[in-house]
TrEMBL record:
One of its GO terms (cellular component) is membrane. Pfam families: MFS_1 (PF07690). It is found in: Membrane. It is a multi-pass membrane protein. It comes from hydrothermal vent metagenome. The chain crosses the membrane at residues 41-67, 88-107, 113-133, 140-162, 168-189, 201-221. The keyword Amino-acid biosynthesis does not apply. GO terms for molecular function: transmembrane transporter activity. Keywords: Membrane, Transmembrane, Transmembrane helix, Transport. This is AmpG permease. PANTHER family: MAJOR FACILITATOR SUPERFAMILY DOMAIN-CONTAINING PROTEIN 3, SOLUTE CARRIER FAMILY 33 ACETYL-COA TRANSPORTER -RELATED.
């Protein structure tokens, strides 16, 4: 995450050095929003917040890379996958988002953010059951329902969390940076999902995706004073 920010900073300085862009424009558009974030929270807290942003969805995304391949290996047809995973799954994600919004209003963003991280990790264990029962439509519905419902809850809380970190003066740029960091590390880790499945098998892979979600709970707890 820090490497990504450093890379962006170096790129901005290079553009200025070669007179490709105006210095004041780069400062106002790229440098000032980053400086503002670190000035408001301080280096240690800012790094902690960035760690939460970069790792919050790691459990979901690493598993998601292999999801469709897993369904096909379990014997589900493309029609079944499309109907249950995409159509029904979308409905459950929207339901989770709606539920997450209500919960955030009633109990606060932190509790829902923590709940979303917990459910995102635990629902991965349902895939172990599916891996053992094989081609079972009922279990596919249950797995997709719980996985997408938890994803909707987590996403709603996460958006509220990101929004709370932005300065109204730099909202667009800061939110864009946070959104990019949100998927950067998970997608890098997700690139090794296939290797993990080949090395350990599906059940062990799903256990791994659950375990990598546990440190996120600790990170979310550590940033509690800066949420809500």
């Amino acid at each position: 995450m820090m490497i990504a920010l450093l890379g962006a900073y170096i790129a901005a300085r290079a553009l200025i050095a070669f007179n490709i862009v105006n210095r004041s424009m780069v400062n106002n558009t790229y440098v000032d929003p980053v400086k503002d974030f670190f000035n408001r929270y301080g280096m240690s807290v800012a790094v902690l917040l960035l760690a939460v942003i970069g790792l919050y969805r790691v459990s979901d995304i690493v598993l998601g890379v292999m999801a469709n391949i897993f369904y096909q290996d379990m014997g589900f047809t493309k029609v079944e996958i499309a109907t249950i995973s995409k159509t029904f799954g979308l409905f459950m994600t929207l339901a989770g988002g709606f539920l997450g919004g209500i919960l955030a209003i009633r109990v606060g963003v932190f509790r829902v953010l923590f709940l979303g991280a917990l459910l995102s990790a635990l629902t991965n264990l349902l895939f172990i059951v599916l891996a053992n029962v094989g081609h079972d439509i009922t279990w596919l519905y249950v797995t997709i329902a719980m996985d997408n419902l938890s994803a909707g809850i987590a996403t709603t809380a996460f958006i509220a969390f990101l929004s709370s970190l932005t300065n109204i003066q730099f909202t667009a740029v800061q939110y864009a940076i946070f959104s990019s960091l949100m998927t950067l590390l998970p997608k890098i880790f997700g690139g090794y999902s296939g290797t993990l499945v080949e090395q350990f098998g599906y059940s062990e892979f799903f256990v791994i995706t659950t375990l990598i979600g546990i440190p996120v709970l600790w990170l979310v707890y550590k940033v509690k004073p800066y949420i809500d």
